[in-house]
Amino acid sequence: MEYVLLDKKDGIGTITLNRPERYNAFAGGMREEILEAVQETCSDPDIRAIVITGNGKAFCAGGDVNEFVSGNSKALSDADIATSDRLTMCKAVLAINAGEKPVIAAVNGVAAGGGCNLALSCDIRIASEKAKFGQVFTRRGAFPDWGGIYFLPRLVGYAKAAELLFSGEIIDAREAFKIGMVNKVIPHDKLMEETYKMAERIVKNAPIPIAFIKRGLQNFYKMDLSQAVDYEAYVLGMTLKSEDFMEGFNAFLEKREPVFKGK
Q1: 3-class secondary structure per residue, 128-164
Q2: What is the DSSP annotation of 204-246?
Q3: Which residues, in sequence order, are bridge partners of residue 112?
């Protein structure tokens, strides 16, 4: 791929946005490559956690302004398509959301516009102390994309989301942590080390309940208590029949680390 690097190691798939000279801004076939990388890692049975990050000084600066000004942007050519044929970026967000693997955004620098919302679409966000976040759409006369109006209010609440979206304000990593946009803020030179430590903790655990937990968390706004406990009972019944369930308990009794196979 031209704009995205994909690495697989020890059960972790790392997707790196790779246009550092343009702060990893979306251009050309980059959106399609992100979708391809997400689909490949989500469908790979050997991958149990996914990390998305950026190469260089930025996570992703959003849409490439030069492309929009020149009229060559794929987003512009997509503007007239029927709503039933979703934009590539919509498909990428849906793939992250629907995939059974936990996805961690390692935000190494600026995450603006669609780049900010790509990070928000992930399950967990770990930010470098140098990271900055901006919903800058209204400053460019644009509307939020990459699922921003869905993810942001669920993370920070309606009022704060409205403030950030209306104003286009750029906030630093500490403020993002304070309002619940990111899980952790890490010294810049330790970002990837700490991200992989979290991914490794996930990889060691049983993938079947993790997949159901992800689905349950995504639907918690839609479920009342009765529906939630029904979902728990249904999933518990399935996991009790799995090989991994027995492995987990046998490992506990034998005082050893479990080896889960996703079966």
Answers
A1: ECCCEEECCHHHHCCCCCCCHHHHHHHHHCHHHHHHH
A2: TS-HHHHHHHHHHHHTTTT--HHHHHHHHHHHHHHHTTSHHHH
A3: 134
HSE-CB of 231 using CA atoms within 13 angstroms: 17
Contact assessment for residue 60 and residue 24, using Cβ atoms and an 8 Å cutoff: yes
For 235, phi and psi rounded to 5 degrees? -70, -40
Give DSSP secondary structure letters for 56-83: TTEEE-SB-HHHHHHT--HHHHHTTS-T
Nearest by Cα to 176 from 104, 119, 114, 93: 119
Distance, CA of 216 to CA of 34 (rounded, Å): 25
Residues 69-99 pLDDT 10s: 655 555 555 554 444 445 888 899 999 999 9
